[in-house]
């Protein structure tokens, strides 16, 4: 069992997280596309949001999209590691991960749409 504690644990966790970001960037086209979208949309969110709550919602749903995409990629990687043969449970896991990403995208559209609509009628 790994008994690393204190600052060393934080350093290790940071390194592992950075490795995860690099793996997602290198190996996942969807993550690259979504990250670029997020980087473009954050300044728009700051402009579009009229207060801290709106800005938090606009940016938060974008970050949630990246989180869900990374978790989906992790599920796919583990599923592929277990075996490359077609299996009903592997397919189900990958499909559910993909559905989670779709829901996160719908969430982005709803949040952005409602806040943009409110701004247009105000």
Q: Would you kindly provide a written description of the structure presented here, covering whatever features stand out?
A:
The model has no long low-confidence stretch (mean pLDDT 93). By secondary structure, this protein is mainly alpha-helical. The N and C termini lie far apart (58 Å). The chain has helices at 6-27, 29-48, 52-82, 88-121. Helix 2 (29-48) runs antiparallel to helix 3 (52-82) and helix 3 runs antiparallel to helix 4. It contains four helices and no strands. It has one domain (29-121): Helix Hairpins, CATH 1.10.287.3610.
Write the layout of secondary structure elements.
Layout: H1 6-27, H2 29-48, H3 52-82, H4 88-121
Helix pairs in contact: 2-3, 3-4
From the coordinates shown, what is the CATH architecture? Answer: Orthogonal Bundle
CATH topology: Helix Hairpins
- Mean of the pLDDT scores? 93
- Per DSSP E runs of 2 or more residues, the count of β-strands stands at 0
The rounded Rg comes to 18 Å
Binding site for ATP: 9, 16, 28, 76, 85-87, 94-95
Function: Catalyzes the ATP-dependent phosphorylation of sn-l,2-diacylglycerol (DAG) to phosphatidic acid. Involved in the recycling of diacylglycerol produced as a by-product during membrane-derived oligosaccharide (MDO) biosynthesis.
GO molecular function: ATP binding; ATP-dependent diacylglycerol kinase activity; metal ion binding
Organism: Corallincola holothuriorum
């Amino acid at each position: 069992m790994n008994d690393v504690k204190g600052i060393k644990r934080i350093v290790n966790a940071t390194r592992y997280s950075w490795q995860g970001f690099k793996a997602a960037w290198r190996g996942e086209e969807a993550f690259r596309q979504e990250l670029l979208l997020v980087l473009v949309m954050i300044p728009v969110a700051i402009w579009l949001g009229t207060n801290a709550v709106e800005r938090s919602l606009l940016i938060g749903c974008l970050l949630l999209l990246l989180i869900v995409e990374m978790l989906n990629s992790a599920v796919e990687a583990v599923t592929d590691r277990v075996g490359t043969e077609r299996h009903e449970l592997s397919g189900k896991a990958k499909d559910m991960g993909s559905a989670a990403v779709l829901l996160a995208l719908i969430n982005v559209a709803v949040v952005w749409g409602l806040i943009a609509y409110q701004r247009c009628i105000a």
